[in-house]
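ARCHIVE CARD
SHELF: 3
SLOT: left
DATA:
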Amino acid sequence: MNTTKLGADFENKVFDYVSSLLDSEGFMGATKTYSRIFKHKKYKCAATKREIDFDITIETYNPHAKSKEWSSLIILECKNYSHKVDISDLDEFAAKINCISKSGIKGCMVSTIGYSKTEIEQARKDHIALAVFANNDMEWYTARNTHMQTEYLMDILLGKSSVGCMPVLYNDGNFVDLLDFLQKFGAAISEKNKVFIPYYKDETIKNKANELYKKCIFQTNDIAGEVLANIFPEIKIRFDNLNDGVLGMFSFEDRVVTLSNEIINDEHRRNFTLAHEIGHICLHESYIKDHAKNFFDYSLDKIKLLQDDLIKRMEQQANKFASFLLIPQERLLVEVDKLLLITNNLKGRFYLNSQIENVKTVDMVLKKLSEIFNVSKQVVKIRLIKEGLLIDDYRTPQRVNRILSRL
């Protein structure tokens, strides 16, 4: 296949992918902002009036503006090379953008291989975003992965690692997802693809977890495993290599919980991660099962979007659910009462500060509860603080402690 055909095919795939994200249903007299996407539309140079052709452009219109021209313009320059993009391509792209306008335009270079450090530094100076999209038969997914480490993403941007199914985008020194990038620079995102996730009060999450807990008669300390086996017997568990930092995921379509090989021998993390995924099933499945095949993966022909604040909300809710499920309130209070008695503590709570005895006591308490509930000491600590059973001012400077004690 010749290089022209390869380039055109890649452009078409990028065009179709981005098109599916946009709200392009605007019309004359519309009352909301909308966007339109074009391939190889020509724009006049402000100085010379000559026309410049761009691979893909996204024009966004403000219906309340007096001018009928676009209010913001995003330009995508696609490079399907067998090597990294050359610095001259970046210089030419920046010059073409500046020729059109000095404001209201955001450029993004899209490559299949990656970029050199020199190009990354130059793009940052020119305020041009850099993206890496896989160029194969793999479907591209729109999803946020807040767990991915910067080092891992930088290796992809530099062409040292393959990009996989989720495009990587780097803008002004930060890695962002495509959806946030489009929204930041004015593009209107399709509302019909967005998912609603409700706010749950902690008490509501606790009640849901307790209801699930009470449905089982547990034979072992593997609470999450027994809940899954007894309440959701159709759901299977498997282990696999997941993206860096991702410990688990649930496929709503296949009814499979996938846990990372990273935690296969870590009982506490494995237990909590499985309970976390059960939290997604109980709290979120009814809201997103019609919108996504997978928590992190979305089909190309029916892309559904989860905003960053929704992802964070879901993760926080699933973490709280896991804590309430694995550390039931009534049982926790019983075990804490025992430990208070053993340590001759008449205050009804533990204190963690700079005093050696308190440090040793709290460490013993955390270790004991960690063994009882089959979770990490950190999970226990967070829960005790949340319940007001542990006061942690160990890291508070002593000067601040003195000031607070006078209040």
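SLOT: right
DATA:
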Amino acid sequence: MDHNMQRKVMAITGGVFLAGAGVGQALAGTVQHCSNAAMPIPDHNQSVPGVLVDSMNLSGTGVISDLRVNLNIDHPWVGDLKVKLQHDAVTEVMLMNKTGLDGLGDCNASSIDVEFSDNATASAEDICHLAGSVTSIVGSVTPMTAEFLGDFDEEILGGNWVLTVEDQFPSDAGVLNSWCLTATIAGSNGPAVVFTPSSGLITSEPGGSVDVRVVLDQAPTADVTLTLTSSDTAEGSVTPDTLTFTPANWNIEQVITITGVEDIVDDGDKPYEITVALSSADTGYGSLVVPALAVTNQDNDPIYTEVPVGYWAYEWIQSLTNAGITSGCAPGMYCPAQDVSRAEMAVFLGRSMHGANQAPPPATGTVFADIPTTYWAADFIEQLAADGVTNGCGAGMYCPEQDVTRGAMAVFLLRAKYGSAYMPPPASGTRFDDVPASYWAASWIEQLATEGVTSGCSATSYCPEKSVLRDSMAVFLVKAFNL
């Protein structure tokens, strides 16, 4: 990093932390790392958000037991901003997202100078809930609802920390002045093997995996070899099954991958363990007993009888259902080859945008002439219009029973994802043979492909006038909204 990065270290006495490997005690301390970035935050350019990425690549093997984040930004409209923190491209926490009235970016505070902490009593959203209510956001705040800095606990402080700031609305820009990580860490008084993460390990059928970083807590006098074994190979496996740490590489993380096994049996979630046998001529490590890693393999056997393992969209349909977006077309059925109507699309998109458990406001029956309050999807259809995703099919109508084409689906998805003001870059006309630059939805289709949401209906075609089927809809939604 080419910034003037300031690092401060302050020891705090008192308090003990029981080492994760069950050996010895560790004195707690606080370490602070700062980036005095002074970097401009690009403005939203009417089609894509302005994105600033700053990073700190830290060294060290200390294990985090508490993390706080200081953030200092000047921006004419703080409510435009989305800020997230990521560690080693594994753990991610959203600190704030379009702060203001109901999270819609209505906060016109011109600066933010806060410490994010799970122990705070209010979020930035709480402080700036009403437009124009404050001129700046200061003090100690929590991350946004359902986000916790505690997700970084038990991780090793070393690694790549990335702060991403996105400007979600046009007309003004700002500056990221600085940000700091303040971590309470622990260092062992005796030899230990550190696993990150060491708890909450989840694998899934078929082949869902979790990576665990492994490092020693102090230098050995001889090689330390770890032999890892799954207690139930019908549920999970581990690779590699042997790690060797030497007096030269003891503090360099190595990674094991624990992978769920598909058994095609509806047996529910199953616990298993990764046992660790340690051998070393080092007297301290040689006598060390390393606890097993507890893992749960989530059952992912077929939810629907007509979507078996091996069906081309099996994983996407399973994921869509597990996310609560759909429960199928009938008990135990998904109807993967059935066309998607505009009414069904409103429900799919509404749940994907706002959450599976969030019900839209009751319909008024006044938005579209063909959508009375008694229509089964009226609430979702009117919410989709309120979100700016649709204006209907014309003449004040919505046409709820009309099938959705693949061309129209590209527009609906990107508007739902980025907002009604979003406009994709101009089309080149070279991405798909059947989508020339003059096609009405060409720019939307090409952007959808650029984002990896679609690769078309064949190697060279998109089939824009074909109706979207329920199996393809599952793929579109899971990829577009990371469900």
